[in-house]
Each structure stands twice: as structure tokens, then as C-alpha cells.
Amino acid sequence: xxxxxxxxxxxxxxxxxxxxxxxxxxxxxxxxxxxxxxxxxxxxxxxxxxxxxxxxxxxxxxxxxxxxxxxxxxxxxxxxxxxxxxxxxxxxxxxxxxxxxxxxxxxxxxxxxxxxxxxxxxxxxxxxxxxxxxxxxxxxxxxxxxxxxxxxxxxxxxxxxxxxxxxxxxxxxxxxxxxxxxxxxxxxxxxxxxxxxxxxxxxxxxxxxxxxxxxxxxxxx
Length: 221
Description:
The protein is an alpha/beta fold. It has helices at about 5-10, 15-20, 55-60, 85-90, 105-115, 165-190, 200-205, 210-215; strands at about 25, 30, 40-45, 70, 95-100, 105, 115-120, 120, 135, 140, 145, 150-155, 160-165. The protein is built from eight helices and 13 strands.
């Protein structure tokens, strides 16, 4: 399956469904500026400390079309590095969207563009051009998640998941399988059934994983 086909398939499921299978590959506290927005694509990473935006504009111009710009603000949740002009620059460069571990500004204008922007919140104070600092094309921390260049980033209203490119197809196919299972769960609920039709709750609660492990560890005397 081509990358484009894989992304189209992924968009028919949800990051939350993929999230059942990831271990640590998810961002916390980062959400779209509009509920309907989704973003998917390979990560192009930028580390942007302080109040300088020169590296952000420069680095985006190096990014392949279709990239998701992932910005590590190194803990700064006060000052927006991203506003309308950054979003317009990313859009004209053919980026798939922007995910920033920090606030955005110009929210209304970006919403009118219908361009995927994911952030931690809003701010009215912004970066300026200084040319002092910043890096790109390196592993970054975004929302508590380590994101490497080329990792696949997929986000919607519930948040953002991230996975190595060579693992993403397996995660998507498993998520689609779970989607099919959930059809049966919904039908069961609509008929007045309960989850114990699919899961042995009695055994799970009374024995649980620890009980199962204990049974495995028993030594015959």
C-alpha cells in the first residue's frame, strides 16, 4: 500500500482507536483549534526556544510537501510562535498541518483558513524575527512524546498519536479491525446486552492478570 493509500485508510479510523495499541506514542494536552480538523503526515521536526521565529520560517522551507510541522517549544506555554502568517506560510509551502507544544495566536484567522493547527491553547504575545536560535530535523519532545523526523503524526479532536513510519500500517490495520469489532458491541448495546457478552468480567475481576501470573508460577510439589 502506498503512503497516500495508507493515510486515506487511517483517516477512516480515529487516533483514539490507534491509541489502544501505542505505548508512549501520544501527545498530551495538544488539540486542534477547530473540532473538525484532522492532521496526518510524516513529521518535520523543529526545536524552537525563546521568542525567535526566524528558524521556524527557515526550517519550514526545507520541509518536504505533505509534512506535519512538529514544533518543540521546550516548555514555553506563554508565548505563541504560531499565528496567521506562520499558518499561511505552511499552507503555501504545501504542509499538511502544524502541531506545536505551545500556544497559538490569531485563532479566528487560522480557523477561517481551515488549515490544521494543533496547539496547547491560546496566547496574545508572539515571537519576532531575531535569528538567534533553533534547530530542525532532530528528535524533539512534543506533548511528552518523542517525535523523530519522518515519524507518522495523526491527530484529531481527541489528541495526537505518533508512530515510526515502518509501524504505522500495522497500527492502522489493527485499528480498522477494532472498528469492525465495535460494530458488534454497538449492536449488542442496542439490543440491551452488556460487555460481558464479549469479555469474561467475572474471571477478569476475580482472578485478573496477577492471578493468572500466580497460576503460571506455581511449582508442583
